[in-house]
C-alpha cells in the first residue's frame, strides 16, 4: 500500500533524507521512530503530498505521489500532530464541512458520519462545540476527519501527544481496532506506544533507515547473549562458583538486591532446568528465575548511536 523507493530530500546542502526505501503492506500498523531531526516530519510531508522529494519515488495505493497527487489524497487520511479543527463548530458541523471538502455526496456523507461518530466514540458529544471538548475528544474528532472518506491508508503524526494516560489508552485501542481494514503509519517518539500498537517498526536516524522489523525481531538481532535473573532464599559463598560452572554460563554477578544474581549465557543454551535443579539440590530455595528481554528502548538507543544499518 505504501512504497518508498530511494527517496532523498535536500534543503540546500543539508540532506534531510538520504536514499531511504521501505514498504508497508495492506492492513499493517507501522511505527515510524527516530530522534529529533532524524527526518520523520520530512518523510510524513512527502507521503501526504505536502512537499515533493528531491529524488526517488513514492507510491500510495498504487498511485505515484508526484504524477497523481489528487488520486493519492483520495486514498489517504491524515492526522497531523495538531488536528486541523475549527473550534467554533460543533462536531457534526465540522465533519459535514470536511465531508463536503472531500466531495462526499449528501447521502454518503450522512452514512459515513453515522459510522465514524460511532467508531470514534463521539456519539455523546456530536452536538457540542469542539472548543468546549477535552484534548482527548478533540483528538478523536481529528481522527474522525481522517477516517471520514474511508481511506485505505492512514498517516498519523504523534496521535497521542498531550493526552493523559487514560486518553492515550483510549486512542491506542481505537487505532488498533483499525488494523486490517486500514494501512496505518504513525510517527511517534513514545517507544511504549510503538510496542503496544504496531506490528512493525521503522527507525530513521540522520536521514537514513537504520532498521525495519517487528520490535521482537529487532531485539533478537541485537542480542549478543541471554540474560537470566535469579533470586534465591538462602545463599552461600560457594553458590556463585557452582552456578558459574554450568555449561553455557558465560558470566555471573551479584544483582542489586541480596541473594540475587545475573547470569549471562550463550544464545541457544537453555540452562534454566539445570540451574533450577542445582539451586533446589543445594537447598538454596528458588524464589524467582526470569529471562531478560531486549526492549524497543534498548534497540532504539543502540541504533541511534551508530551510523551502521542493521540488516
Task: Write structural notes for this entry.
The protein has helices at about 40-45, 70-75, 90-100, 105-120, 135-145, 165-175, 190-195, 215-220, 240-245, 270-280, 295-305; strands at about 1-10, 15-25, 30-35, 55-60, 65, 75-80, 155, 185, 200-205, 210-215, 225-230, 250-255, 260-265, 285-290. It has 11 helices and 14 strands. β9 and β10 form a beta hairpin. It has about 300 residues and is α/β, with parallel strands linked by helices. It folds into 2 domains: about 1-220, P-loop containing nucleotide triphosphate hydrolases (Rossmann fold); about 225-295, Alpha-Beta Plaits.
Provide a brief overview of the structure.
The protein has helices spanning 40-47, 69-74, 91-101, 106-119, 135-147, 165-177, 191-197, 215-222, 239-244, 272-281, 296-303, and strands at 2-11, 14-24, 29-33, 55-60, 63-64, 76-79, 153-157, 183-187, 200-205, 208-213, 226-232, 249-254, 260-265, 286-292.
Amino acid at each position: 500500500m505504501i512504497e518508498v523507493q530511494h527517496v532523498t530530500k535536500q534543503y540546500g546542502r543539508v540532506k534531510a533524507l538520504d536514499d531511504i526505501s521501505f514498504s508497508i503492506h495492506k492492513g499493517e500498523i507501522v511505527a515510524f521512530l527516530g530522534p529529533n531531526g532524524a527526518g520523520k516530519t520530512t518523510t510524513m510531508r512527502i507521503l501526504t503530498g505536502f512537499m515533493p522529494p528531491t529524488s526517488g519515488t513514492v507510491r500510495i495505493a498504487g498511485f505515484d505521489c508526484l504524477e497523481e497527487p489528487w488520486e493519492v489524497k483520495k486514498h489517504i487520511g491524515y492526522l497531523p500532530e495538531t488536528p486541523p479543527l475549527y473550534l467554533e463548530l460543533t462536531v457534526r458541523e465540522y465533519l459535514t464541512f470536511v465531508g463536503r471538502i472531500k466531495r462526499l455526496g449528501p447521502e454518503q456523507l450522512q452514512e459515513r458520519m453515522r459510522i465514524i461518530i460511532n467508531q470514534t466514540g463521539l456519539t455523546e458529544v456530536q452536538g457540542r462545540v469542539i472548543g468546549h471538548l477535552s484534548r482527548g475528544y478533540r483528538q478523536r474528532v481529528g481522527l474522525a476527519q481522517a477516517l471520514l472518506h474511508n481511506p485505505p491508508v492512514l498517516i498519523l503524526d504523534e496521535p497521542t501527544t498531550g493526552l493523559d494516560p487514560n486518553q492515550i489508552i483510549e486512542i491506542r485501542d481505537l487505532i488498533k481496532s483499525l488494523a486490517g481494514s486500514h494501512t496505518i503509519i504513525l510517527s511517534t517518539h513514545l517507544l511504549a506506544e510503538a510496542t503496544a500498537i504496531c506490528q512493525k517498526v521503522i527507525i530513521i536516524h540522520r536521514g537514513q533507515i537504520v532498521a525495519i522489523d517487528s520490535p521482537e525481531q529487532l531485539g533478537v538481532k541485537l542480542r549478543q547473549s541471554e540474560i537470566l535473573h535469579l533470586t534465591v532464599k538462602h545463599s552461600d559463598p560457594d553458590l556463585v562458583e557452582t552456578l558459574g560452572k554450568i555449561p553455557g554460563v558465560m558470566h555471573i554477578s551479584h544483582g542489586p538486591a541480596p541473594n540475587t544474581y545475573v547470569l549471562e549465557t550463550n544464545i541457544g543454551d537453555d540452562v534454566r532446568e539445570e540451574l533450577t535443579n542445582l539451586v533446589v539440590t543445594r537447598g538454596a530455595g528458588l524464589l524467582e528465575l526470569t529471562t531478560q528481554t531486549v526492549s524497543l528502548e534498548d534497540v532504539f538507543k543502540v541504533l541511534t548511536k551508530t551510523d551502521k544499518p542493521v540488516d
